[in-house]
């Protein structure tokens, strides 16, 4: 269990399960509000189904001690990921709405990456949930994704409280050292590194934070398309920070 201990196996999966339970609570709260149309209710049912499936998968990994999902044994493959990214953002919108935030996205299509899609989803759920948690009401959280210079770059930006210079320096330090930025961001760095990528952070206190996840572009541009469970490219909204 040396590898599992290194990665904080139980803590890592427990942290991710908590994230998805919070998303589920937000979706159920919206469904219980009586404010949704029949069509919106169907969308929220899809969000609930998606997050329940993710939680079940994480619990199964925990029970089976499937270290390959967390440790340096990423299951890397070429894939078209734009549909899955749209699905991911749509699945967390209710959680953002519960916090009185607008969640926007701009995802290039088609978009091909060489990655472990399950691991990439965990990275982005952690970043998005942190952005929502640390952004005051009436703010924005924004995800963008596009190919740049041989990398797929996925930015998660917010208009939140920002990180102090000390926490930014801690984040840029040794990935295995405990840092004030919390377990979620340590997992983000570890999992991105396992996919042969890296994470950058830019932040100003009381203005906001942007995390940039960079992973290799797919070698095969005919990679399989990973279908979204909710949303479509036509639903994409664009956000231009002032």
In short:
This protein has 242 residues and is of the alpha+beta class.
Overview of this structure, please?
The chain is an alpha+beta fold. Helices cover 46% and strands 19% of the residues. The protein has seven helices and seven strands, in the order H-H-H-E-H-E-E-H-E-E-H-H-E-E. The strands form two sheets. A five-stranded mixed β-sheet has the order 2-4-5-7-6. Strands 1-3 form a two-stranded antiparallel ribbon. Strand 6 and strand 7 form a beta hairpin. Helix 2 crosses helix 4, helix 4 packs parallel to helix 5 and helix 5 packs antiparallel against helix 7. The longest helix has 27 residues. The chain is globular. It starts with a helix and ends in a 26-residue tail after the last strand. The C terminus is likely disordered.
Topology:
Layout: H1 2-7, H2 9-32, H3 38-64, E1 77-80, H4 82-98, E2 102-107, E3 112-115, H5 117-133, E4 140-148, E5 151-158, H6 165-172, H7 183-194, E6 198-204, E7 208-216
Helix pairs in contact: 2-3, 2-4, 3-4, 4-5, 5-7
Main attributes of the structure:
242 residues; alpha+beta; 5-stranded mixed beta sheet; two-stranded antiparallel ribbon; 7 helices; 46% helix; disordered C terminus
């Amino acid at each position: 269990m040396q590898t599992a201990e290194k990665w904080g196996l139980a803590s890592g999966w427990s942290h991710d399960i908590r994230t998805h339970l919070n998303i589920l609570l937000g979706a159920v709260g919206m469904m219980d509000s009586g404010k949704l149309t029949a069509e919106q209710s169907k969308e929220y049912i899809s969000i609930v189904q998606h997050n329940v499936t993710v939680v079940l998968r994480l619990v199964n990994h925990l029970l089976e001690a499937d270290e390959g999902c967390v440790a340096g044994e990423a299951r890397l493959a070429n894939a078209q990921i734009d549909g899955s990214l749209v699905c991911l953002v749509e699945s967390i919108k209710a959680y953002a709405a519960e916090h009185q935030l607008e969640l926007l996205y701009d995802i290039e299509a088609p978009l091909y990456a060489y990655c472990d899609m399950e691991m990439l989803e965990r990275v982005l759920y952690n970043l998005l949930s942190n952005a929502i948690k640390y952004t005051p009401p009436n703010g924005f959280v924004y995800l963008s994704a596009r190919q740049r210079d041989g990398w797929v770059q996925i930015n998660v930006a917010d208009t939140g409280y920002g990180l102090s210079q000390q926490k930014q320096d801690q984040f840029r330090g040794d990935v295995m050292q405990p840092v004030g930025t919390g377990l979620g961001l340590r997992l983000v760095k570890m999992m991105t590194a396992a996919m042969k990528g890296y994470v950058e952070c830019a932040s100003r206190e009381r203005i906001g934070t942007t995390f940039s996840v960079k992973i290799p572009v797919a070698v095969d541009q005919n990679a399989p398309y990973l279908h979204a469970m909710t949303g479509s490219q036509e639903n994409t909204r664009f956000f231009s920070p002032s």
